[in-house]
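REQUEST ID: PR-0412
SUBMITTED BY: lab tech R.K.
PRIORITY: routine
TASK: structure prediction, single protein chain
INPUT:
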Amino acid sequence: MKTTDRLNLAAVLKALSRESRFEDYFRKAAGAAASCCGADGAALIMRDGDSMQYRFFLGVPQAFRQRFMGYRYPADQGVSGEVLRTGRYRFVGDYAHSSMAMETFVSAGLRANLAVPVHWPDGEMAAVLAVSWFGSRTNLPDPEALETVEALAGLVGAALLREEMETRLRAQALSDSLTGLPNRHALPEVLEGAMSRARRQERMLSVIVIDLDGFKAVNDRLGHHFGDLLLKSCADRLREIVRRGDTVVRMGGDEFLVLSEGIQRVSEVEVLCRRIDLVLRLRMTVDGRRVSVRPSIGVAMLMDDEGDVNALIHQADMAMYSAKSEGGGYRFYGHEIDRHQQARRAIREALESALQENGLALYLQPIVDLADGRPVGAEALLRWPQASGEVLAPDSFLWAVHDDPLMERIGRWVIATGVSILRAWQSESALAEMTLALNVSDWELRKKGFCESLDQLAGGEHPVNYARLHFEIVETASLSDRKEIVEVLTQCAARGISVYLDDFGTGYASLSHLSEMPVNGVKIDRRFVDQIDRASQSRSLVQAIIGMAEPFGHAVVAEGIERPEQTAWLRQLGCRYGQGYLFGRPMPADEFRAWVTAWQGQDELPA
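STATUS: complete
OUTPUT:
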């Protein structure tokens, strides 16, 4: 090799070292290879399984480039096929008359070519570097030129490996490792492209956000491994039912997004949302267990040139939260949802301040012995007093923190405040024998160390008498298969705490709850009590509930008593305890103390 050639090659190597993009790297390497052979241009033909594919060109005629960019042909054909078979370079000086010639390339004007193998660093064949002549046939390049081309092919192989690794890393960064779906980092680019196409084609675009209600409970109950399997099942179901061309994205946690393009009518999106809602509500068999979740689905539509990526996702999120607050299903974003979400944020912020500043309260509703009206205890009910004097019930504000960490903090506050009230009662003779019922949700019971935390609250210099503490278990629809909840309730029972099933008879609780759970009593839902003095069907239902509870020795409390006639029927049917406006509305703790004092000494119920 001439000294000038060595200097030129050194300059090439220096130039290559500055290139980070493979396409630019190839252009300089291929240019040097073609130049040292006196060729017209070069191309990189990538191996892909049993095929070869043209990927990069330099200096070839424009018509050739347009025709063959991305072109595939069998890996065992042509000059490149011979290179793959032998692992050595192959030169064809008269391509049209070569036994390895392919008519497609002859007709495109290829006169001669030199094909050099491109190896991965481990020696495997990755591609073929083809140096090509289109003007005229040529002779075999001299050995020094061949050596230079082979050296450049080696450098291209190393750069190609780097490009492949970077591409793989980029793909991993934009892909969810659990489901294989694109992740939230991939969404901006995907959505920007979809929005551009929608505007160009004058079609609509929808962004559908899906949140899985009930997933957290399954994940907590059965473990993260099972939760991961459930998410994969949900992802598979979404892949199966979306339209061709739609994109499914896992946003993180139990939230997915579906990007639907080419929409002509809003009804198409409604159909898709109904399919998503149905397929995710259906029970799934995961790792041998039957489980189910409930999707909350929010939809935002791009219907004109207005809107951007972040706005669409935000609008779909707001619609999803609106659907969640109404029990699931799907909702389309609109101005009313925007107002709804603004109200939700405002309530949450005010509620957090109230919690920090001791602005919440527990109101107490009396529970009485129906035989003589004697107060035996109270149910603690959450209330939010306002500066205006109005007192808000939970239905008017807890919807704003559904599935929010603030909900857990409020639950802990209720238990801590209830324990404090019960401790104060123990030092007052009029209240010392009263029971206090606290509503406890199943997600609170599933919190690790529930009983230990309760012991810390109830212990100390003046420990609380657990025999006076009752837990009313809400959300009983999902308790039957939760062994850990039964274990926690068993620990509560061992401490002397009584457990009551709330809203018994509504169809959620069942006889199995009474036999399998450490339950001490049931509360008859107010819907059955409401018509007990007017409808025989209501009396039959109440009688059936009492008949279910009696064999287990469970106490029965009727809720919503407002008329003396209801009390008479309840006593006749064998219900011993009750609560309702007839005896007293929910009231602050001080008023309850006065109410108990007023009742002492009375022997009969009010007429």
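NOTES: The longest helix spans residues 143-173.
REVIEWED BY: pending
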